[in-house]
Amino acid sequence: MDREYKTVLKTTVCEIEEKKSRFIASVRPVSTEEEAQEFISKVKSKHQDASHNVYCYFINQNTIIQRFSDDGEPTGTAALPILEVIKKTGVRDLVVVVTRYFGGTLLGASGLIRAYGKSASLGIDTACVITKKLCLEVNIVIEYDLFGKVQNMLISKNYIIKDVIYGQDVEIIVFIQHTELQSFIELVNEITNARALVESGKDSYITLNSQGKILLKEEN
User: Fold this and answer.
1) Phi, psi of 31 (to 5 degrees)
2) Could you give the C-alpha distances from 74 to 1, 19, 111, in angstroms and in order?
3) I need a surface site. Which of 88, 140, 142, 211 has the fewest CB within 10 A?
4) Residue 189 reports pLDDT greater than 80
5) pLDDT tens-digit series, residues 59-76
6) Where in the chain are all domains bearing CATH 3.30.230.30?
7) Would you give the end-to-end CA distance of the chain in angstroms?
8) Which fold is adopted by the domain 4-127?
9) In whole angstroms, what is the distance from residue 159 CA to residue 121 CA?
10) Residues carrying CATH 3.30.70.240, the chain
């Protein structure tokens, strides 16, 4: 399990034009090959009158799965440029389909490579590149009179608070790095005079945008 990797946030569609040929990039985050193939089928069905529906997907869960098709374009001029953009961007777990409607003017090999690469790059950018980071969820249970002090400490030290649950006591769920667990427990005990119950929870991926800010809600 990778501690950190890049992918895309949401499904998106964008379009460019090169010498009257339309190139429509459809991008979606996926976690399985079945999801990728289903998306490709939907795009092909929607654009069944297109000249080409070129696709590429790159998935790295337990194993790396990499598939692509030029769909009738000259070998190496369509799918490979898309794959190169994916690898250059450093993203994974996504599928990219670039649909072409021929505009009547031949682009040549270099023109096709440039157009498919440009379309894929724009599609990935529009889908928003994000970072998935593996963290440890930690539960802090405290009495209400300690809540303000603990909350201020967490905020001042830039810890990410996932949730606050108000019951008989207050439970704060925080994301931390695995290597920080012992020092984090010591810190909480220090500011609460050991009146807090601190327990480590499950591993969980958090999502960070390009500015490193956490996104608690994701788009599809």
Assistant:
1) -120, -10
2) 37, 18, 12
3) 211
4) yes
5) 998 899 999 999 999 999
6) 4-127
7) 23
8) Ribosomal Protein S5; domain 2 (3.30.230)
9) 33
10) 133-208
Q: How many residues would you count in the chain?
A: 220
Residue with structure tokens 């809540």? 147
pLDDT at 28 over 70: yes
Tell which residue, 180, 130, 133, has the closest CA to residue 154. Answer: 180
Amino acid at site 144: Y
| pLDDT band of 220, cuts 50, 70, 90 | very low
Q: Which of 18-32, 88-102, 198-212 is least confident? A: 198-212
**pTM for the model:** 0.83
> What is the per-residue pLDDT for 137?
94
Contacts of 153 (CB under 8 A, 6+ apart): 187, 188, 191
Alpha carbon distance 58, 89 (integer Å): 12
Sign of the torsion formed by the C-alpha atoms of 173, 1, 4 and 90:
negative
Q: Which fold has domain 133-208?
A: Alpha-Beta Plaits (3.30.70)
DSSP states along 65-121: EEEEE-TTSPTTSSHHHHHHHHHHHTB-SEEEEEEEE--SS--HHHHHHHHHHHHHH
Would you state the pLDDT for residue 39? 98
